[in-house]
Amino acid sequence: MFYSAKTARYHPVDQLPGSPLAGSDGAYESEDHNHAGRQRDGRLSCASLFLCLLFTLVNIAVTMVSSQRTSTHNVTHKNLHLLRRPSQYIRFEEIPRPSPPTPRKFNNYPITFAQIDAADESKVFEEGLKAHMTPIGTVVPEDRRVLLTPTISTIVQFRAIDWGMEDCELHLSLPELGNMTFESQSAVNVELYRMNQTYPLDAAVLSYQSRPPRETKIESIPLARGESTTCHHRFRCPSDSVVTFELALVCTEVNKNTCGLEWWQKVGSTEPSPSVYLTQHATA
Ligand SMILES: *[C@@H]1O[C@H](CO)[C@@H](O)[C@H](O)[C@H]1NC(C)=O
Ligand SMILES: *[C@@H]1O[C@H](CO)[C@@H](O)[C@H](O)[C@H]1NC(C)=O
Ligand SMILES: *[C@@H]1O[C@H](CO)[C@@H](O)[C@H](O)[C@H]1NC(C)=O
Q1: If you compute the radius of gyration of the chain from its CA atoms, what whole number of angstroms results?
Q2: What's the number of CA atoms in the CB half-sphere (13 Å) around residue 277?
Q3: Cα 93 to middle of ligand 3, angstroms
Q4: Where are the alpha helices (DSSP H) in the chain?
Q5: CA–CA gap between residue 184 and residue 174 (Å, rounded)
Q6: What's the mean pLDDT in 191-214?
Q7: Where is this region: Disordered (predicted)?
Q8: How many CA atoms lie within 13 A of 110 on its CB side?
Q9: CB within 8 A of 144, min separation 6: which ones?
Q10: Which pLDDT does position 132 carry in this prediction?
């Protein structure tokens, strides 16, 4: 095992007298010498055996202790975030950077899209995948679903990536009022919340009951007829941090039953409308 391999010493076997590999002269040793040699060998093998047993016991003890420790820290979806995430950018902070920073930016797309339903608190939505059959098999495009009704809201999460790009801008672009999945004739607002959740959610178990708490309301965006609506929200995003937003729909009493909004978003899509993504800008 690993521990004994590290600690047990290897004792070379004495060459047998008279064997073809023995010393160059090949002479036999005297009886006395031989006897003493055998005694020494006996003591040596006793010591080796003792060491062997000792290390075996140590090994078993260490294995039991470490297996006990790992069994209390089984890595599952629930505690995956407890694993250490060491920085990938070792000593980058020592590299001089221009101030003000060179203007650079890139887009970053959600790591999670998930729905929760206030009308069915324990409902877990199936992962929004648009699988379809083709002659060569099932194709699962990377489109993700955003679904909003008066009770169903959509949670999106982003992980800020890269080094020194810690100025984030959330882009939310919503379709025009007439283009909603469920036709709606009167005022509709999309509410954007920041949630108090700093590690990735497990969409396979997320329900309204287990949703993270809302932290702040960022904006309430009224949908307009005849034009798409956009919203920009800028915030600090430390490298490798996870930010969570909730999109909720608020409809008037009159259109409550027919009001709803749905779209499928392609990964990497910054198509004007509808979409939700992040732009990361360079920081000094
Ligand atoms: C950890 O996993 C092992 C085997 O998969 C299981 O026997 C043990 O009960 C688990 N421990 C906890 C705390 O979940
Ligand atoms: C709304 O729908 C019409 C027709 O279905 C389409 O031509 C138009 O581009 C859509 N507008 C938006 C903002 O999606
Ligand atoms: C977020 O939740 C944690 C505990 O889960 C709490 O300590 C913290 O104060 C909350 N932050 C805000 C801004 O509500």
Answers
A1: 33
A2: 19
A3: 29
A4: 2-7, 31-72
A5: 14
A6: 93
A7: 14-39
A8: 28
A9: 110, 113, 128, 129, 264, 265, 267
A10: 77
More confidently predicted of 270 and 115: 115
Which tokens is 186 given?
Answer: 């009167």
Ligand 3 atom closest to Cα of residue 215:
14
Answer yes or no: is pLDDT of 105 > 90. yes
| Torsion angles phi and psi, residue 238, rounded to 5 | -55, 145
Phi first, then psi: what are they for 65, rounded to 5°?
-60, -45
Q: Which ligand is nearest to the CA of 226?
A: 2
Residue entry with tokens 């509410």: 191
Residues 78 and 74: their CA atoms lie apart, in Å, by 10
pLDDT in tens, 44-102: 888 999 999 999 999 999 888 877 765 556 787 778 888 888 888 999 889 888 888 88
Residue type, 202: D
Residue 269's pLDDT band, with cuts at 50, 70 and 90, is low
Own/partner long-range contacts of 94-98 (Cβ < 8 Å, ≥24 apart): 97/164, 97/284, 98/284
215 lines ligand 3 (CB under 6 A): yes
End-to-end CA distance of the chain: 50
Best substitution site from 146, 179, 263 to test ligand 2's pocket, by max atoms within 8 Å of Cβ?
179
214 Cβ inside 6 Å of ligand 3: no
CA angle 182–183–187, rounded 5-degree value: 110
Of all protein residues, whose CA lies closest to atom 12 belonging to ligand 2? Answer: 175
Predicted pLDDT at 258: 73
